[in-house]
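can u do me a favor
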């Protein structure tokens, strides 16, 4: 609710520039005091649409929901069966109590009980059938971010399909036409559901990818953990994230990577949350070989040591292990390398390491 007010306030300011700016400053909008904005009765606000906006900030109800094992990993490869020329995958969305690490457990929404959801791996030309069952008490849908699918399969809840009601199953069918790094996520109350864990990587291969010793999807995400529980992390006061996760875990509980000197690592950074993360690798540069699922021609590949990964973006980078040692991979917004504001064993949050032996 509060976020909707902020957004509408912004529209009003933009729409009536002279008056809007003065009114905004005067009524506390610039100070982000949303209560004042509500009281001021900003022009153009539609109470009904605000209610329908329904940015539900409540924690996930996990009463009676078993906790995943503290060392359970998200992003495991999703098994499939074959039927009628299709690869059949099954996703089930349900609440889970998920340990993000460093002794902290959140109430999350998860696909197949893990955060992030399992990785769907496919090959160009595959026909996919993904059966999505909603085991939550709120409606949902699944969007295939970056894939070119028929409109009716696009998963924009309430736009291209009715939402999947609690207890129901919806079947998505489409053919994958391009190799690359994609992800799937809820597109119903996405502000809430994606922030609370409903996303997973989708990797399409065509056999022409550069060969590497380790190929690692890295889903970047954020959490707002309060003393009495957690709520969706969003970009406004009161809900700013204080925990940051790489594939559903905060350092020192993030999974590391081990390769030999001279070998190459492909990291597939996926901006799965609502914040931007400049991802930096120690120990040598990397090449950006693909962006948003599109290969970068060799002559255009930037050599860098930091890449800013915004929400929704994917960057595939290839890093070569030049020297032995433990080389950090981390976000360079260093607040994002803390756990609730503190460092543990040299970092927190969006930190992992490549060990070169
Ligand atoms: Cu960051």
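np, heres the sequence
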């Amino acid at each position: 609710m509060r976020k909707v007010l902020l957004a509408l306030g912004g529209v009003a300011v933009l729409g009536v520039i002279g008056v809007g700016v003065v009114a905004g400053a005067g009524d506390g909008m610039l100070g982000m005091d949303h209560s004042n904005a509500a009281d001021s009765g900003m022009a153009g606000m539609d109470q009904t649409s605000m209610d329908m906006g329904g940015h539900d900030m409540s924690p996930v109800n996990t009463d009676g929901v078993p906790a995943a094992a503290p060392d359970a990993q998200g992003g495991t490869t999703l098994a499939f069966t074959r039927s009628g020329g299709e690869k059949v995958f099954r996703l089930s969305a349900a609440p889970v109590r998920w340990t993000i690490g460093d002794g902290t457990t959140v109430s999350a929404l998860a696909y197949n009980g893990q955060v992030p959801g399992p990785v769907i791996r496919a090959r160009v030309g595959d026909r996919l059938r993904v059966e999505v069952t909603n085991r939550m008490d709120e409606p949902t849908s699944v969007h295939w971010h970056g894939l070119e699918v028929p409109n009716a399969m696009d998963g924009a809840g309430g736009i291209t399909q009715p939402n999947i009601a609690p207890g129901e199953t919806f079947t998505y069918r489409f053919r994958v036409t391009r190799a690359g790094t994609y992800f799937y996520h809820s597109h119903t109350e996405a502000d809430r559901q994606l922030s609370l864990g409903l996303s997973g990587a989708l990797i399409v291969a065509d056999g022409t990818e550069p060969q590497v010793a380790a190929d690692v999807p890295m889903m970047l995400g954020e959490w707002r953990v309060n003393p009495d529980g957690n709520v969706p992390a969003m970009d406004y006061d009161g809900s700013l994230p204080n925990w940051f996760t790489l594939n559903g875990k905060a350092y020192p509980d993030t999974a590391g990577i081990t390769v030999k000197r001279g070998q190459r690592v492909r990291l597939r950074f996926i901006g799965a949350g609502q914040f931007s993360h400049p991802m930096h690798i120690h120990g040598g540069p990397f090449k950006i070989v693909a962006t948003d699922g599109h290969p970068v021609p060799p002559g255009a590949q930037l050599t860098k040591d930091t890449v800013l990964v915004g929400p929704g973006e994917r960057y595939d980078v290839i890093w070569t292990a030049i020297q032995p040692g433990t080389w950090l991979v981390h976000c360079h917004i260093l607040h994002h390398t803390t756990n609730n504001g503190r460092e543990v064993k040299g970092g927190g949050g969006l930190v992992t390491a490549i060990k070169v032996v």
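The radius of gyration is 21 Å. hope that helps!!
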